Amino acid sequence: MSHPQFSSSLLENAVNEFAKLPGIGRKTALRLVLHLLKKSEIEVEGFGNAVIDLRKQIQYCQVCHNISDTDVCHICSHPSRDRQTVCVVENIKDVMAIENTQQFRGLYHVLGGIISPMDGIGPSDLEIESLIQRITTDNISEVILALSTTMEGDTTNFFIFRKLAPFNIKTTTIARGIAIGDELEYADEITLGRSILNRVEFSNSFK
Amino acid sequence: MSHPQFSSSLLENAVNEFAKLPGIGRKTALRLVLHLLKKSEIEVEGFGNAVIDLRKQIQYCQVCHNISDTDVCHICSHPSRDRQTVCVVENIKDVMAIENTQQFRGLYHVLGGIISPMDGIGPSDLEIESLIQRITTDNISEVILALSTTMEGDTTNFFIFRKLAPFNIKTTTIARGIAIGDELEYADEITLGRSILNRVEFSNSFK
Q1: ipTM
Q2: Among A6, A91, B163, B180, which is 20 to 30 Å from A198 by CA?
Q3: CATH of domain B80-174
Q4: Domain ranges of chain A
Q5: Inter-chain contact B55–A34, Cβ cutoff 8 Å?
Q6: A-interface mutation test, from B2, B10, B67, most A Cβ less than 10 A away
Q7: pLDDT of B101-160, one tens digit each?
Q8: Which residues of B fall within a CB distance of 8 Å from A57?
């Protein structure tokens, strides 16, 4: 390109870096960079170093593999959590989503993904062996599978379910159904069908 | 908040920094940070340092006040640009937009904003004095005002127009009208009205 779009290579470099982020186009990248340019040097250093420090110093909990500042995360080391129930999730966003409900007092196990042959992700790329290890060493009575209801999620669920079979452990999966507040006519057929098959006693539905 | 949303303060800090950016909510911020976490340390350093270096080393062209890596930007120092025509714009994004058209071979003058009493921006906050200085010292024959057609843009246009009056210099403004490809029925009345008043000879419309 003989006609330079940017008047400064520093500017161009910063815009290119932002444009690499998912969902950020070049126009948005430029807008974000020009926003940062208006901030003080200290503020911009705070921004840049927050990301660099996170990447350099990041640790994962040795027990559940969630992101943690310590060897064992605050959930796994919490004295009042139910250590017999382990909820298996795909990633740390799922841990945060479940924690926000304040309905679960057990521990987690973060797989770090789901089995996806299309993306070249097999069982050995995930924290499945370490889950089995926890089952054998810790006194766990129930494993809750909370993966997404996609083909990959179902495959992973079934793989883990089979791995757990020899241990004679209670294995459950989170309830699927019509979301609270949703109207039936807009629900997809599969969800609606499953929610009829998996209907619960009315008196239990308020629990 | 006794119930920590984030399992790591490093993670929380990085998400908070991203969420300060305009148009980036906390969910998007988390998604961007987790994306960066998957990258190598070198890539993440490249990202963070690109922003820090830009802010620390940024320079503005002494002539036109555009962002530049050198004292005088590549447009102002370009030997084949028309040094007698100066296009006055609000910010560097406007310079890039006009440069991308490849229709303008003159120089620019970046005001750094427009007069906006609501935001506390007066003429002295903008590069207007330095524009007058250029008029008096350089051999400029035409000033093109290319500000936005808002009340603030019109105010700024008029302020500069009056400042330029004593110099007996040609002052023009960019053409306003129906965008090429737009249908008349969807154009707003003011634009359509102006485009009729400022109609051009048909033979000139192909230039």
Answers
A1: 0.78
A2: A91
A3: 3.40.1360.10
A4: 9-57, 82-174
A5: no
A6: B10
A7: 888 899 999 999 999 988 899 999 999 999 999 999 988 999 999 988 888 988 999 999
A8: 10
H-assigned helices in chain B: 9-19, 26-37, 41-57, 92-101, 129-137, 151-164, 189-197
- Stated as kind and residue range, the H or E segment containing A12 is helix A9-19
Residue B163 amino acid letter: K
Per CATH, the number for A82-174 is 3.40.1360.10
- HEC string of B54-79 equals HHHHCEECCCCCCEECCCCCCCCCCC
- What's the pTM value of the predicted model, to 2 decimals? 0.76
- The pLDDT mean for chain A works out to 88
Per DSSP, helices labelled H in A122-184 are 129-137, 151-164
The β-bridge partners of B121 are: B116
Task: Among A8-17, B84-93, B142-151, B182-191, name the one with the lowest average pLDDT.
Answer: B182-191
Longest CA pairwise span in chain A (Å): 73
* φ and ψ of A47, to 5 deg: -65, -55
Q: For residue B11, give the DSSP letter.
A: H
Cβ distance B35 to A14 less than 8 Å, yes or no, reads no
Angle of helix B41-57 versus helix B26-37 axis, rounded to 10: 120
Segment B94-115, tens digit of pLDDT = 998 888 888 889 999 999 999 9
Residue B1: pLDDT band by 50, 70, 90 thresholds? very low
Chain A residues 95-134 with CB within 8 Å of chain B? 95-96, 99-100, 102
**Least confident residue range of A129-133, A184-188, B127-131, B156-160:** A184-188
Confirm or reject CATH 2.40.30.60 for domain B9-57, answering yes or no.
Answer: no
Those residues whose C-beta lies under 8 Å from the C-beta of residue A85, and which sit 6 or more positions away, are A105, A106, A107, A140, A141, A142, A144
Residue B9 has pLDDT above 60, yes or no: yes
Same fold across A9-57 and A82-174: no
- Closest-CA residue to B65 (of A18, A10, A8): A8
